[in-house]
């Protein structure tokens, strides 16, 4: 394959970070088409990047353009239909997180990738950060021993994005599926990708969007078509087949001093906390930081998207094995579904295979 021919499905906020990544890979790929149901937004996107082939229907784009790959950067309810349509058209997909609305959709997407022999990468962008790379090397070297517990959080004091993010029909859920997914994925990835077997979860909708205060962290386009019906806060324990346990907490709205998030893993030889730089703590007091030369690369929001997109292009062009494959997206959807199910029933949810 010469240059990978790329289309963008969904030209909202995050698509610009994908575009930045594709433009940084201009010797290996070219974005030739874009699609959005919102025509003014689509037109502005086309003008900004000089993309002439614009569509309001992704099926039409897939039929008319000779594409090798697409980014699916729509709201969550379109991830599954757009991804399956692309894969069935013989096009590889970089699909934003969360992979889908639920496990059932995620399994259909994984199946379509297998059936068509195409790449389906899930947008677990934080896997590409240098904090994660340092922690992974440390854990993989055996220096942390066996990882048996992780405490992960992604907490916003007052950061409900509004719009479709607050409407389950489009998002599938609130902060757990939107924010929790990032840190849950990191913990499972670093712990060696064990298989989740059960969860005990709780969700709360006590405060509502905006928290009753004028302060608003950020807001995206809100239209009358969206309701607000997601949780403010979710928390839960997930148990894995190898004995590993994860505790996750995620909020859009919570009465805390300020936003914070942590990914901390505990092993028999050391504990590791992700950060810039990541840190480790041992029982003999030999604590330290994971800041080798290898990790001395910029790791801001834009850069990690650049690394993610570069990896995707490499997988499509050169057949490099994908480090954020569909099967991991499916596992995350199983974990999220189980927490929501347990929160509904008040009982532990067993994850069935
Ligand atoms: N990896 C990250 O850190 C990160 C950050 C933000 C958002 N995201 C994810 O990216 C996705 C998009 O989020 P966003 O913030 O860009 O939202 P957004 O609302 O800004 O953009 C979504 C776009 O999808 C379009 N769309 C909806 N249905 C469509 C369809 N059938 N065909 C084509 N376009 C369609 C909408 O019109 C909108 O322009 C979400 O899944 C979100 O979870 C990931």
Describe the structure.
The chain has 353 residues and is an alpha/beta fold. It has 2 domains: 4-126 and 304-325, 3-Layer(aba) Sandwich (Rossmann fold), CATH 3.40.50; 127-297 and 332-350, Dihydrodipicolinate Reductase, domain 2. Helices cover 34% and strands 24% of the residues. The chain has 10 helices and 15 strands. The chain has helices at 15-24, 39-49, 58-64, 79-88, 103-116, 130-140, 168-171, 175-190, 301-318, 326-345; strands spanning 4-9, 29-35, 53-55, 69-72, 92-96, 120-123, 147-155, 196-204, 233-240, 245-251, 260-267, 270-273, 278-282, 288-290, 349-350. The strands form 2 sheets. Strands 14-13-12-11-7-10-9-8-15 form a 9-stranded mixed sheet. A 6-stranded parallel sheet has the order 3-2-1-4-5-6, with helices on both faces. Helix 2 (39-49) links the parallel strand 2 and strand 3 (53-55). Helix 1 (15-24) crosses helix 9. The longest helix is centred in the C-terminal third of the chain and has 20 residues, at 326-345. It is globular and about 60 Å long. The protein starts with a strand and ends with a strand. Bound molecules: nicotinamide-adenine-dinucleotide (NAD). The site of nicotinamide-adenine-dinucleotide has 24 residues, from loops. Nicotinamide-adenine-dinucleotide (NAD) binds next to loops.
């Amino acid at each position: 394959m010469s240059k990978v021919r790329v289309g963008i499905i969904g030209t909202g906020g995050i698509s610009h970070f994908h575009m930045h990544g594709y433009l940084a890979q201009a010797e290996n790929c070219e974005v030739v088409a874009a699609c959005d149901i919102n025509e003014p937004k689509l037109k502005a996107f086309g003008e900004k990047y000089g993309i002439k082939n614009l569509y309001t229907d992704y099926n039409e784009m897939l039929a008319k353009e000779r594409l090798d790959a697409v980014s699916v950067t729509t709201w969550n309810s379109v991830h599954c239909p757009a991804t399956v349509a692309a894969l069935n058209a013989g096009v590889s997909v970089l699909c934003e997180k969360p992979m889908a609305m639920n496990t059932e959709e995620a399994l259909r997407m994984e199946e379509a990738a297998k059936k068509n022999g195409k790449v389906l990468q899930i947008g677990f962008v934080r896997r590409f950060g240098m904090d994660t790379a340092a922690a992974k090397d440390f854990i993989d070297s055996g220096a942390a021993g066996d990882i048996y517990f992780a405490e992960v959080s992604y907490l916003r004091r007052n950061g409900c994005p509004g719009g479709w993010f607050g409407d389950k029909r489009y998002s599938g859920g609130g902060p757990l599926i939107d924010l929790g997914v990032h840190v849950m994925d990191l913990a499972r990835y670093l712990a060696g990708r064990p298989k989740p077997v059960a969860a005990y979860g709780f969700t709360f909708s006590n405060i509502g969007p905006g928290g009753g205060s004028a302060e608003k962290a950020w807001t995206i386009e809100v239209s009358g078509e969206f309701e607000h019906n997601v949780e403010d806060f979710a928390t839960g324990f997930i148990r894995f087949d190898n004995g590993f346990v994860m505790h996750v907490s995620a909020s859009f709205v919570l009465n805390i001093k300020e936003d914070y998030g942590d990914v901390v893993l505990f092993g028999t030889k050391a504990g590791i906390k992700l950060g810039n730089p990541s840190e480790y703590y041992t029982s003999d007091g030999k604590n330290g930081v994971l800041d080798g030369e290898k990790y001395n690369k910029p790791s801001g929001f834009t850069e990690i998207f650049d690394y993610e997109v570069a990896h995707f292009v490499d997988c499509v062009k050169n057949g490099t094995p994908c480090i954020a494959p569909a099967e991991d997206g499916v596992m995350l959807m199983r974990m999220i579904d189980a927490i929501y199910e347990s929160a509904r029933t008040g009982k532990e949810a067993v994850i069935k295979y």
